[in-house]
Amino acid sequence: MVKDFINRFREFTQKNNLINPGDKIVVAVSGGVDSIVLLDVLNEIKNQLKLELIVAHFNHKLRGAESDEDENFVRKFSAELGIDCYVRSENTKEYCKAKKISIQEGARELRYNFFETLRLLKGFDKIATAHNANDNAETVLLNLFRGSGVNGLAGIQIKRGSIIRPLLFATRDEIEEYANEKGLSYRIDSSNLKTSYRRNYIRLKLLPLISENINPGIIETLNRTAQIFSELSEFIRHEVSKIIKFVAIEESPGKVFVDIQRLKSYLYFIQESVIISIAETFFNERIDFARVLSILNLIDSTPGSSVMISGDLFVYRDRQHLVFLRKPEFFETEIFLYVHPGEKYETDSFVFSSEFVKREDVQFHRDSQVEYIDADLIADELILRNWQPGDWFVPLGMKGRKKISDFLIDLKIPIYEKRKILVLESEGKIVWVCGLRLDDRFKITDSTSKILKIEFHPKQISRINE
Questions:
Q1: Domain 2-130+165-214, CATH among 3.40.190.10, 3.40.640.10, 3.40.228.10, 3.40.50.620
Q2: Where do the Lysidine-tRNA(Ile) synthetase C-terminal domain residues begin and end (predicted)?
């Protein structure tokens, strides 16, 4: 059985171009039977293929002494094989609490970040993980119950970036049989026996029932289904890559505009794939199906509505676009400039200028980026700054005062854009919410004798050509 298993391993890795002669491979080893068998098989073919192997183990500190025992076991097994073992430990609960993410999501993030960092530091080619055919079947069912789209039903990818999964051909029973025949010891993760976790419930309860009462070959069936959807997903991905060029444009790093009308011209499942691909292509983010639906629901929402994709990536709707925005652009740039009437000021993000004009030269603009004020009502030195909570003004055409925060809410300006808005101040009074609305107290009237033209122009790269 052992020889047959290794031959099937070689066939699977050759067919899917997972392992080539001379590869340097980081082997992710938890201590469980799957990863122990993976490491043992790679060690068996190491000399034949001239492979270079190292072991990576992440101690999540989630199961107390049991986690530490797993670490010690992996260190010892690696040493017996003469393979260097690299270990990293971190308090996963604290990490997840700080990032406000689930334990499973945080643990995966920590683990894979460590694997990739180690790969780069050591100059290795690939990271091998021990996912098997049962894992794939469980993933397909789990994604089906979640209401996932085509990508979810494609199951676990055989290869993604530097990550390879060379055991996906084998069932868990076959892996355990290999371990028993070779006399390999391995660790059992007690948390895998708890049916309170959805994946464990599928593994321990649901799949055995299906196998016994409906389809004894359910694992193979679900893996075959995953293969079909994987090929369909690849075809869609190829087509979507062409569609993205038509519907989306990267205005700047971390900011992508998606034309709503162009997106709506495609079938709904293509729209879903476009959203997934944009998140992956421009932001290296993998988003679940529920978030995809939330993003597409923005199409029928009011401008200013938004959805958070991850800790630092948001999508909001403006009048004609869905805007993907990475958090660094949200961070408020501190602006505090003393400006003098009649002078021009330019930064990386805007141009502010002012000049004295005659009444006959006054031409009001509808975009509010150009305004005219009574120069006799302002000081010789003004302040251009970020608006602050508590700031208020009297919007042009109104008699009462209004908080700027409420004014921006009324305009349905996304929270991420609010932080960029500046105000022009004179002696403690707001003269202008730049580019949006003048304060009524400073407007020109029939009695105005001295007029100052003020302009505020944000710097932007042009969007989609209409």
A1: 3.40.50.620
A2: 382-454
pLDDT score, position 433: 95
Q: Residue positions in the annotated binding site for ATP?
A: 30-35
Inform me whether the pLDDT recorded for 460 exceeds 70. Answer: no
Residues in binding site: 30-35
Give me the helix-helix angle, 133-146 and 289-297, nearest 10°.
30
Half-sphere exposure of 258 toward its Cβ, with a 13 Å CA cutoff?
Answer: 26
- Candidates 409, 399, 397, 406; CA nearest to 437 is 397
Dihedral sign for Cα atoms in the order 400, 401, 403, 408 = positive
- Measured from the Cβ of residue 225, the count of other Cβ atoms closer than 10 Å reads 17
Measured CA to CA, the distance from residue 19 to residue 7 in angstroms comes to 14
Q: Using alpha carbons only, how large is the chain's radius of gyration in Å?
A: 30
Cα separation, 93 vs 111, in Å, equals 13
CA gap 313, 295 in Å, rounded: 12
Q: What is the pLDDT of residues 151-176, one digit of tens each?
A: 889 999 999 999 999 999 999 999 99
In the CATH scheme, what is the code of domain 227-329? 1.20.59.20
Residue scoring higher pLDDT (366 or 422): 422
Torsion of CA 250, 105, 31, 67, to 10 degrees: 140
State the pLDDT confidence band at 330, using cuts at 50, 70 and 90: very low
